[in-house]
Amino acid sequence: QVQLVESGGRLVQAGGSLRLSCAASGRTFSSYAMGWFRQAPGKEREFLSALSWDGGSTYTADSVKGRFTMSRDNAKNTVYLQMNSLKPEDTAVYFCAARLYRIVVGTASWNYWGQGTQVTVSS
């Protein structure tokens, strides 16, 4: 069982940066692949980025590639999403999720989800 808590979301101006954090409970955090997702009002949840359990495999969606970077610190049981050059269309609730070992591209097959953190980008 893994429990996830996201933090770091806030109101930011367009062009600014934010770093989101996702803190995980459990002693086996290093066995889990981690992913970041977002959901804007009235839209489906969108896959953004994922890292495998050892960081050896990574995937970032084209929609945020070059602006968003995911990283993990297994010693701190935490994953991060560095977001740069933010745009109003990045406004959404951002979620992290976990599944054992390998990443999966997309929103399916992720076993554990956090409650989300709100990011609002003003123009």
Structure explained in plain terms:
This protein is an all-beta fold and 123 residues long. It has strands spanning 4-7, 11-13, 18-24, 32-39, 46-51, 58-60, 68-73, 78-83, 92-100, 112-113, 117-122. Strands 2, 4, 5, 6, 9, 10 and 11 form a seven-stranded mixed beta sheet that branches. A four-stranded antiparallel beta sheet has the order 1-3-8-7, with no helix packed on it. The chain is globular. It starts with a strand and ends with a strand. The mean pLDDT is 94.
Short characterization:
The protein has strands spanning 4-7, 11-13, 18-24, 32-39, 46-51, 58-60, 68-73, 78-83, 92-100, 112-113, 117-122. The protein is mainly β. The strands form two sheets. Strands 2, 4, 5, 6, 9, 10 and 11 form a seven-stranded mixed β-sheet that branches.
Note the topology.
Elements: E1 4-7, E2 11-13, E3 18-24, E4 32-39, E5 46-51, E6 58-60, E7 68-73, E8 78-83, E9 92-100, E10 112-113, E11 117-122
Supply the key terms.
4-stranded antiparallel β-sheet; mainly beta; 123 residues; globular
What is the molecular shape? globular
Coarse structural class: mainly beta
**Radius of gyration, CA atoms, in whole angstroms:** 13 Å
The ordered string of helix (H) and strand (E) elements is: EEEEEEEEEEE
What value does the average pLDDT take?
Answer: 94
Low-confidence stretches: none
